[in-house]
Design goal:
Elements (H helix, E strand, L loop, with lengths): L7 E5 L3 H10 L7 E6 L1 H17 L4 E5 L9 H13 L6 E7 L1 H13 L5 E6 L2 H7 L4 E6 L2 E8 L4 E5 L8 H18 L1 H8 L3 H4 L4 H20 L5 H4 L5 H11 L6 H19 L4 H14 L12 H8 L9 E9 L2 E9 H12 L1
Parallel strand pairs: 1-8, 2-3, 2-4, 4-5
Antiparallel strand pairs: 6-7, 9-10
Helix pairs in contact: 1-2, 3-4, 5-6, 5-9, 6-7, 6-9, 6-12, 6-13, 11-12, 12-13, 12-15, 14-15
The chain binds nicotinamide-adenine-dinucleotide (NAD) and zinc ion (ZN).
Zinc ion binds next to helix 12.
Length: 359
Amino acid sequence: MATPPNTRLDFGRAMLRESLTKRLRALRPRPSKVLVVMDRHAQQAVGDRIERAVADAGLDMEVMLAPHGEKRKTMASAETIAARLIRRGADRSSFVLAVGGGVTSDMAGFVASMLLRGLRWGVVPTTLLSMADASIGGKTAVNLPEGKNLIGTFHFPEFVIADVRTLHTLPPREWLCGMGEVVKSAMLSGPVLMQQLENTAPGQLRRASNALVDLVRSCAHHKTKVVTADPFEGNQRKLLNLGHTYGHAFETTAGPTKLAHGEAVALGIRCALRDSLERGMCSEAYAQRILKLMARIGLPETYPGKLPAQGELRRLLLRDKKAAHGTLELIVPIRAGHNALIRGVEARDVAAVIRREFG
Ligand SMILES: NC(=O)c1ccc[n+]([C@@H]2O[C@H](COP(=O)([O-])OP(=O)(O)OC[C@H]3O[C@@H](n4cnc5c(N)ncnc54)[C@H](O)[C@@H]3O)[C@@H](O)[C@H]2O)c1
Ligand SMILES: [Zn+2]
């Protein structure tokens, strides 16, 4: 298993085939086989390039389609993938290559971490969200009916290869979702990434531009820095959950068709800013700056539909993995690059913030 500083990160435009061949050739010991796990949209977008790259590296390959969509990010799907990998000849020196969005990499990474007590793996993220966030940091997971990502492991990939050209088929809504995480990264990382984001014209953010490569690279490097300092989630890594305690509750109540992950995070960031303002921890100017940035990008500003009742919100908030003894841990934004972790927050107080923001 690679440790975080050993995960090689490649970012660029139209470099996927070359980079992948190079990274596969460099693996020591040489894998017996590359087991490609991808979802069908990723296969349509990049399947041929992946197959040519593996062939160019002179390695044997098996390709299998993973169950697709957040609803199928389950133990049952992980078992299906594991069984298929074994049937296709997986052994201890096989290499798992996850190609797709965060759902695919979370599941394929989870299987790679367990199968035959752990196989090496790599990721080719094909969504903006995964390039900026999900593929970085070695967390793998599947969902339970009781909540998202409740079962998972830490298993660091050997490499991540993010080619923004693979995004040309990505639906606009998925782009937007990625942008929700990019805004989060900017708030965590500090003024440099914040200004980089503010100075990029919205048009540049919506296509495979060099500016987008730079942004995605900055987000991934920030996350890598945090994860390297704190690989197994002590306090620093927890800050990466900015906006997510609220966001996960919104995702569950609204459902994925009304509110996708990155959109829910954007709404969560709004609540976090309100909470911070009410606590007197951030300035009105900072809150306005972030709200303006999110509006310029086109992220949602209101909860879609009717907000659940206070009691229901409380119950959902307490399902958060970071909930302990009936209270929550919240990340409160202060200014770019400065965010505080507050423990022991009553779920009813968090629910009340949500109702004041969207009620
Ligand atoms: N492990 C982590 O640290 C981490 C961090 C953040 C999020 N996540 C997880 O990531 C998941 C969300 O990731 P996501 O937004 O990438 O979801 P996803 O994998 O479901 O991808 C979103 C949609 O885009 C499609 N798609 C993928 N690549 C495409 C392409 N190039 N062209 C067209 N369509 C394409 C997918 O098939 C899917 O329909 C969540 O399950 C979340 O829990 C994990
Ligand atoms: Zn997220």
